[in-house]
Amino acid sequence: MRRLFTVLLVMVLAAACVPGQPDPTLLAEHAALSTEVADARSTATYAADRMLQTVEFISTELSDAVIRQNVLSTTLEALGIDPSRVTPGAFVPTDVPEILSPAGGSLITPFAGGGAVAVLTPAGGPLLYGIVTAEGVGDNDCALTSVNTFTTTTSSIYVVATAANIEPGMTLTSRWYAGEEERAAFDFVPDFAIEQHCVWFFLTPDDTEFTPGNWSVQLELNGVPQGQPARFTISE
To answer: Potential cystine with 160: which of 35, 144, 200, 215 (Cβ 3.0-4.6 Å)?
Structure first.
C-alpha cells in the first residue's frame, strides 16, 4: 500500500511538471486579471472620450466668444466709440412705452426684444454716444444702417445716439450745420430718466433747404457737445 501511494504521488508531481500544462489556479487568476484590465481600458477610453468632447466644446465656445468680442469691438469702433470705455452693465427692463418728444422730432424707446436684456453701459455720468446719421430707424428706434451720404431729394436725415444716465430736466440738443452755417437746432427736455435707450432727431427739407455740400450735426447735453460732429454730405 505504501509503495502504491508513493507511485501515485510521483505520477501527480510528474503531471504537474509536464510542459504545456499550466496551473489551473494561475489560469483562473489570469482570466480574472484580463477581465479587470479590459474593464479598466473601457473605463479609461470612455473617460478620455468625454474629456476630449469637453475640451472640444470649450474650445468652440471660446472661439465663438472671441469672434463675438471682435465683432462687437469693430462695431463700437465704427460707431466712434472707444471699446476701452465700455464696461458690462446691469440687466435693463424693456417694457417702457414709446415716448415721442413734442419738439425736434426725437423719439426715445427701449431696446427691442422684450423682457430684460444685457446692455453695455458707458462709464461715467450722463452721456450721448454711438452717434451716427441714417435715413431711418428700425423697430428698436436705433439706426437701420449708418449712412453719411444723402441727396437733395432725401425726405429725412436722422441723427441717432444712445443715451445713458440721463436725468429728468436735462436738455438734449441737435445742431445741424451746412459747412460752418447753423441751419437748424432742436431741443428735447425729458421729464423722465433715460438709460440705454436710442434717441434720435431728424431734419427735413421743411426745416431747411438740403443744399449740396458738406454737412454735420452736433449733439449736445446741457449745452456740452457730445463726441465729434457726425459729418455727412448732400449731393444733387
So the answer is: 200
| Domain assignments of the chain as residue spans, ordered by start | 24-78, 87-235
Q: Where are the alpha helices (DSSP H) in 79-189?
A: none
- The closest of 146, 135, 138, 145 to 210, measured between CA atoms, is 135
**pLDDT tens readout for residues 88-147:** 444 444 333 333 333 344 444 333 333 333 344 455 689 999 999 999 998 888 999 999
What is the average pLDDT score of the chain?
73
User: What's the count of helices (H) and strands (E) in the chain, helices before strands?
Assistant: 2, 13
Residue 146 sits at the vertex; the CA angle it makes with 142 and 151, to the nearest 5 degrees, is 115
Local confidence band at 168 (pLDDT 50, 70, 90 cut-offs): very high
Give the pairing type, strands 127-134 and 224-225: unpaired
Burial of 122 (0-12, 13-18, 19+ CB in 10 A): buried
Instruction: Determine the residue type at 221.
Output: L
Class of domain 87-235: mainly beta
Output the DSSP codes for 56-98: HHHHHHHHHHHHHHHHHHHHHHHTT--GGGEEEEEEEE--PPP
How far apart CA 22 and CA 18 sit, in angstroms, is: 9
In angstroms, rounded to a whole number, what is the distance separating the alpha carbons of residues 225 and 87? 22
- Please check the confidence at residue 25 and state whether its pLDDT lies above 50: yes
